[in-house]
Design a protein that fits this description.
The chain is an alpha/beta fold. It has one domain (2-203): TIM Barrel (Alpha-Beta Barrel). It is built from five helices and ten strands. An eight-stranded parallel beta barrel has the order 1-2-3-4-5-6-7-8. It has a two-stranded antiparallel sheet with strand order 9-10. It is globular. The model has no long low-confidence stretch (mean pLDDT 93). Residues 3-203 form the N-(5'phosphoribosyl) anthranilate isomerase (PRAI) domain. Keywords: Amino-acid biosynthesis, Aromatic amino acid biosynthesis, Isomerase, Tryptophan biosynthesis.
């Protein structure tokens, strides 16, 4: 499994997290978020892909942020259209489209994005676009009809280690490409607990 650590904010903390060598680091460019990033991303190892997280942003805003921070990917957490996703292909970066799940999910909603986006991300449906802090019913993904690789997100922390191992060994994880963590590893919004992240990474089989 690949590992994405999202909601980064503090420069020194970003550099400490980078030492854990995650595959992806996420920076939230949504002003209503408590993890909104409005700083300069410090120099990171080239193997760590920087992902910008957006919610119903315009193409011009996303393009400006991608160019400013030299992002390698965009993660779309709102009601972005397939047309916008197609337009974003011109930025030559990874496109991750997020879908929120609670107890059920209509997988037909994936179809318009199937041939446009590089990855899907499944998060917990809650009051916020992300960072709600609890998991959804992962067994819903037993009915995943696609072969497109996806990120699993939503309230994943140390308490979910055993549940996550079960998921990774189940049929539902066949196309699971990466685990996305955020709020369960925080001291405060945007500030990550390094020791807990290290323990999580060591206890799960993440590809390097």
């Amino acid at each position: 499994m690949k590992l994405k650590i999202c909601g980064m904010k503090n420069s020194n903390n970003i550099l400490d997290v980078a030492k854990l060598n995650p595959d992806f680091m996420g920076f939230i460019f949504y002003k209503k978020s408590s993890r909104y990033f409005n700083d300069t991303i410090p120099e990171l190892p080239h193997n760590i892909k920087k992902i910008g997280v957006f919610v119903n942003a315009t193409f011009d805003y996303i393009k400006g942020i991608v160019n400013k921070h030299n992002l390698q990917g965009v993660q779309l957490h709102g009601n972005e259209s397939p047309e916008l996703c197609k337009q974003l292909k011109d930025l030559n970066c990874i496109i991750i489209k997020v879908f929120s799940i609670k107890d059920t999910f209509d997988f037909n909603s994936l179809e318009p994005y199937e041939n446009i986006c590089d990855y899907f991300l499944f998060d917990t449906k809650g009051k916020l676009p992300g960072g709600n802090g609890y998991t959804f019913d992962w067994s819903v993904l037993n009915n995943y009809p696609s072969t497109k690789p996806f990120f699993l997100s939503g309230g994943i922390g140390l308490k979910q280690k055993e549940k996550l191992k079960e998921f990774i060994n189940s049929e539902a994880s066949k196309y699971c490409f990466a685990i996305d963590v955020n709020s369960k590893f925080e001291i405060e919004p945007g500030l990550k607990h390094i020791e807990k992240l290290e323990e999580f990474k060591q206890n799960l089989s993440f590809r390097t």
